[in-house]
UniProtKB/TrEMBL annotation, chain A:
The keyword Oxidoreductase applies. Residues 299-320 are annotated as: Disordered. This is FMN-dependent oxidoreductase (Nitrilotriacetate monooxygenase family). Belongs to the NtaA/SnaA/DszA monooxygenase family. It comes from Streptomyces clavifer. Residues 25-376 form the Luciferase-like domain. PANTHER family: ALKANESULFONATE MONOOXYGENASE-RELATED, C2H2 FINGER DOMAIN TRANSCRIPTION FACTOR (EUROFUNG)-RELATED. It comes from the Bacteria. CDD domains: Nitrilotriacetate_monoxgenase. One of its GO terms (molecular function) is monooxygenase activity.
TrEMBL record, chain B:
Pfam families: Bac_luciferase. Residues 19-254 form the Luciferase-like domain. Belongs to the NtaA/SnaA/DszA monooxygenase family. Keywords: Flavoprotein, FMN, Monooxygenase, Oxidoreductase. InterPro entries: Diverse_substr_monoxygenases (IPR051260), Luciferase-like_dom (IPR011251), Luciferase-like_sf (IPR036661), NTA_MOA (IPR016215). This is Alkanesulfonate monooxygenase SsuD/methylene tetrahydromethanopterin reductase-like flavin-dependent oxidoreductase (Luciferase family). It comes from the Bacteria.
Amino acid sequence: MTKQMHLAAHFPGVNSTTVWADPRSRSQIDFASFEQLARTAERGKFDFFFLAEGLRLREHNGLIHDLDVVGRPESLTVLNALAAVTDRLGLAATVNATFNEPYELARRLATLDHLSEGRAAWNVVTSSDAFTGENFRRGGYLDRSDRYTRAAEFVATARELWDSWTPDGTSRPFAHSGQHFQVSGEFTVPRSPQGHPVVIQAGDSGEGREFAASAADVIFTRHGTLEAGRIFYADVKARLAKYGRQPDDLKIMPGVTVVIGDTDAEAQQNAAEIRRLQVSPQNAILALEQVWGRDLSSYDPDGPLPDIDPDPGSRLSQGRAGLADPLVRAAEWRALSAAKGLSIRQTVIETTTRQSFIGSPQTVAAELETFVSTGAADGFILVPHLTPGGLDPFVDRVVPLLQERGAFRSEYAGSTLRSHLGLAEPVWKG
Amino acid sequence: MSATRPLHLAAEIGGPPRYDAASHTALARLAEQGALDFVTLNDSFARPGPDALAVLARVAPATTRIGLVPTVTTTHTEPFHVSSAVATLDWVSGGRAGWHADVSTTEAEARLFGRRGAAPADALWQEAGEAADVASRLWDSWEDDAEIRDVSTGRFIDRDKLHYVDFEGSTFSVRGPAIVPRPPQGRPVTVIDGTSGPARKAAARYADVVYVRATSPEQASALRDDVRGLAAAHGRDPDTLRVLVALTVDLGDAETAPEPGLESGPQLAGRGTYFRGGPVDLAELVTQWHRGGAVDGFHLTPLAPERDLERIVNGTVALLQHRSLFRTFHPGGTLREHLGLTRPANRYALARTSGGTA
Ligand SMILES: Cc1cc2nc3c(=O)[nH]c(=O)nc-3n(C[C@H](O)[C@H](O)[C@H](O)COP(=O)(O)O)c2cc1C
């Protein structure tokens, strides 16, 4: 039997993947945009709808970054509203474990799970960054090495709170005393329909993977190519046994982009056009500055790469998840530019924004299936480049093919996100 | 002038804890049918119940006009998150959000968080006022026309129209700007229960709607004057405040006559005022107090929401409407419009265009 894949819809983010200059691009903040994308995902029988989070506006060279979409709503509040206009779709919020406290967040997640009748998920992200900390009581800083010990203890504490009511509805006092949290009292929310909302982890370091293997139900990863995906998949699944978990207990879902055309050739053209739109001349210089860590505003985007070397210690860009080693990155860019005779903008287009799946609906469906059948992924988090209509071509043209192939559900079998993901009910630990 | 002041009515929809969407939605819709200004949903970490802001976000798409005002506490929460969540409630409701700022006073609540011990009311309300202040600054930290989508320069926003708030409070600081663009109302409505002294100070300085508790129109009028005077002392125009009398109502014996002594007003019960009688009696009380100019309106907390809210809407409100004392529909779309409050100008835009400081 064909292994069924899982699919999630990522609301377009605040980065250059999202093309706002397209005339079809609409509001990144009006509820109507969220409702439309969520309804599209539910029409496509997706497992869940996903919202990212950033707790400080990104900056570049000490100034608020102005070239990409800026501004988002607070995730859990939007998802509660979306629960009113969807029935089955899972609702996943990214929420930072460094700048929240377990009692309040566990309560908000349990409330979403009740109000959505079992569709809540939490993408646990971490931050050690003093830049973001300037918006919070904790202030500055959490030692990098402490991020995941805090996140792990946070999730464990949240689960103790979710378990503090008996399944038949009696509240029992809880007490947790650990390195990061010393909390006790009574939880105000009864056990929610899923028992525990689904826990997603997004982070790539050894500690991040270990945390996911010990505690997460889903991993959101950047490893979206077949080779890198297989290596990541094998690595993470191999870590599960030591926590007494089965390979199927943790779903691996890379974030991917898809471009469709009537033919493979047309899709390639569409993809090239989207990349060109994603990398405006200004965005090309910015991408360059992010690698080089220097002010390169005087360079011509249609001219050659700079001769000077990157500044590896630079703090030019703030509020972004970490990039690879800048010296290695710069060397790759120079090699590419020299080999193909590419300008700055062309080099950026070539390197930074290649879509994951490009082709006719048949080609894309077959490739997605290959990823799942050959151990590179359990499913995909699709990141459209247009708000809010960017998922329509996939849902209209690829999903039916996946369904025909038996690679994706034609109807929701259950009503909770856990049931969509094939995750067991958590055992109540009273 | 006072006799023609519009009447404002709000109702609490919480009661025994419920965790489903349907019961809350039904009550909010009922209040909406009665053209009430807003519904509130109480919240506390100290007793069972769901997160109120989440519940009203869930209610938002199922309603169209009614204002939505959850209680949000400021003692153990992050001011930055609070401001983002309230702004988002405003976005998902199309400009119908407010928040009732409250504090957590007990040791039991402090232990749920384990970050700090319980503190005296004075300090907690000082902090709550600062949380309201920083929220209002964060809501202004994006000017309304900051989003430009200028293809020729590749810029999505005009960053000169985004502002750091650089707020230094007594217990927290916030750099800003907000991560959420300025919400539809500019600033969602801030509600504070000004019954206690420290709370009343914060209310007079930062709230748009203030609750007071009174057992006679004279007392209500004096409290209203006090709040307005305090607001004026902070440089505010008192007419930008709405003072509502908070009343717990028990309409359980709708068919019986009011108890002796209630004709002159509700009786004091503990911290609050408690009205027991029929819907018509309640309409009489509202009429008398409002006609005398003692109040801008009432915030009613039904003892049993499922029973009493229906009686308030179909009994009390219907009668007030019949007497042309209360609107029969919502002419406006936002909570500020229901309350007759203008959309506030953006302090940073004003400062930028006038060269002053915010
Ligand atoms: C696919 C992916 C998505 C992420 N999304 C977010 C996000 O929405 N918000 C956020 O604050 N961090 C996000 N992160 C950052 C992670 O939480 C984490 O801080 C980062 O990956 C560094 O951790 P690591 O060293 O384990 O990789 C994301 C990371 C990955 C890999």
